[in-house]
Amino acid sequence: MQVLPIPTPLIRRGDVIADVLIACSNLRSGDIVVVSSKAVATAEGATIDLTKITPSKEAIAWTERCGRSPEFRQAILDETARMHGRVLGSCPLAMLTELRPDGLSEGSLLVANAGLDLSNTTEGTAIGWPHDPVQSIASIRRHIKEKTGADVAVIITDSQCRPRRWGVVACALAVSGLDPLEDLRGREDLFGHTLSMTQEARADQLATAANTVMGNASESIPAAIIRDHGLSFGDFEGWVPGVEPEEDLFRGIV
Amino acid sequence: MQVLPIPTPLIRRGDVIADVLIACSNLRSGDIVVVSSKAVATAEGATIDLTKITPSKEAIAWTERCGRSPEFRQAILDETARMHGRVLGSCPLAMLTELRPDGLSEGSLLVANAGLDLSNTTEGTAIGWPHDPVQSIASIRRHIKEKTGADVAVIITDSQCRPRRWGVVACALAVSGLDPLEDLRGREDLFGHTLSMTQEARADQLATAANTVMGNASESIPAAIIRDHGLSFGDFEGWVPGVEPEEDLFRGIV
Which of A245, B2, B69, B239 has the highest CB neighbour number within 10 Å of its CB? Predict the structure, then answer.
């Protein structure tokens, strides 16, 4: 399997992200294109102008608890509300939010700061997810097919925090053209025993593999290609489904 | 970056895992060798004979709550105690355990079933982590250097569950020859702002990238090589440090 970075010029509002990816890489049919949610949101003009936000008392209280400006905290509360979410906790610099965005078929998403970030966006702004990531990747995939003839799958990613672990890994928010989960239940192990539990988080793993060559600092590598992966494409297009809290190994705990 | 699977014959007790990896691949200096903890534990004879275990009342209660045999539940309780851990919760088929194994410099590990597994091991046995994963990878790395001259880094992995997400990804238990975390704090983002928070979970990301070509079913691919990664090697050798519960974004929640 090859994991190939796609370095690009700085992404700006109004860019057509599919055109940028086409110009900066050599896409082939069968490639899986992994692209950062922040780059897509920036191109789509989803940047939030913090200078236009009036913080509530709740936002000020969150700033006292975990830092950053009340305007940023208010933007997180607004984004949490937009995605039918709630705040579960906090640490210095981050709130832990649980989101159920429109179109998510199952479960919820546990993310820091409702997906909002102050880095890699212009001064006085915050950047989060595209308003509708499924629509974004469907459009990217169709556009690549039309312009280049290449039939690719597309994954849109964000970084993910995990309990008790330092550092971020990537997760897949939405996928087009590939099953996001590989269900091994019913298959046999090395000794012929039937597996009763194992599922592979295929899209999250591919997102993380791509993230090893992408950058969270100033690398300007907002996307990557995964090639020679041996995976079959499929019809799936949507948010990666999550686990309902009551079915979760972490239930009652998170 | 290339991620190359290392298919092997079935690993058995008494195998020298470094010799198996050498025989089944073409290792070069600079390669990162990622190997499954279960394969190493099997070779080292760390298999647990469940037929020799007498379950306690607590083990029987865990079986009533989340299935599997009382002997398997007792093995998990024993492994949890060996690694100075505790049980936090459960779901069908799994207990959620928090472990602080000897040699872990910071934090703890949140894992399903104390790392024990009933798949890919012979009937009536369970398989978990090597008794001392740091010792295991140090030995593998030294052995590869002595036999082939190749200076490789080694990562030993297990699968990881995450709140609200279906499917497993990989995490790095221990690393030899590479910094497990890449601290981006103090570096500048695309717009010249200093990053105040971001760390990359480098070892976990590499483990997950490798896991995309390894197998949890009957693939017999217990290891992979990561090549052309552009990362510098370092002196680190040890468990990947974790977050102390009181510093955790998930604190009070997990």
Answer: B239
